Amino acid sequence: MDKLISVVVSVYNEELVLREFYQEAGKVLKTIPENWDYELIFVNDGSRDQSIKILRELADGDARVKIVNFSRNFGHEAAMIAGIDHASGDGIVCMDSDLQHPPECILEIIQKFEEGYEVINMVRTQNKTAGWLKNFTSAAFYKVINCLSDVKFQANASDFFAMNRAAADVLRNNYREKVRFLRGYVQNIGFEKTVLEYEARPRFAGESKYSIKSLFKFSINTILCFSDLPLKLGIYSGCAVACFGLIVMIYTIWTWFKYGAPSGYATIVVLISFMFAMLFVIVGIIGEYIAILFAEMKDRPIYIVKDTKNLD
């Protein structure tokens, strides 16, 4: 019996690249081993351009092209988990539609499945088009989260990854947080894992949908999802401030004995400003954790499907 590889593709305002992606991915998928068949699952994440129209045209001409169309934009992470939910393959590959994730890597992924691996992390060796700032912040992000979290992540792992049906079932049934870091979950679930390296291509068309603000928010949420160390910052900062206060008290007593009156208006102002700043940072961190808890307690759906095409 043939095995099935499901290629899950997140789409958000990609009208300029969809046909090119379909052609390139199709050329690769037609060369996969004879004991494998394939399906292309495009998840339209509330695109405001002509992306859904193009996808429907592709699906009309090819029954292997399947569409999950969201009612609105729910975000890249939601689109990927929706694709995994609707995939029926023995192996599932998640990738972007902008062609920065090379479709030819699918052949290497299938080879790793044949060798018995269950989770395949695709690690980006370089991204020349990202610019030095994005490359630097990406490397810094993994260093920070690996310091704060008990889970150690593969540096430069991307949203390009693959897993077999058993690993996908874990994500479908257990990892259903509303605030999520999917590539982190893939590295965290265990199973037989391996790593493949790839060089990110330039974007075929369009521009990145992640702004600096959204990347910063995404990084904060990721750290909070995988580490409780920021919650302990109050204890550590309290001890540090207590030690600092003890030093200032000793200094004040010394100046009182030596000069007869303690000088220290500037010292008091600096101390108060420092402690209030630390207090507000800690309150802000607690607020972020409460916001995540609030989102989970509301238990709203991760995504809402408006309609599908070529899916049973």
Overview of the molecule:
The chain has ten helices and eight strands. The chain is an alpha/beta fold and 312 residues long. The chain has one domain (3-227, 299-309): Alpha-Beta Complex (Spore Coat Polysaccharide Biosynthesis Protein SpsA, Chain A). Helix 5 (132-148) packs parallel to helix 8 (212-226) and helix 9 runs antiparallel to helix 10. The mean pLDDT is 78.
Q: What low-confidence regions span 5 or more consecutive residues with pLDDT below 50?
A: none
Helical element count? 10
**How many strand units?**
8
Q: Describe the sheet with the most strands.
A: 8 strands, mixed
Helix and strand string, N-terminal first?
A: EHEHEHEHEHEHHEHHHE
The fraction of residues in strands falls at 15-25%
Summary?
With 312 residues, the chain is an alpha/beta fold.
Q: Which descriptors apply to this entry?
A:
single chain, 312 residues, alpha/beta, Spore Coat Polysaccharide Biosynthesis Protein SpsA, Chain A, eight-stranded mixed beta sheet, 10 helices, 8 strands
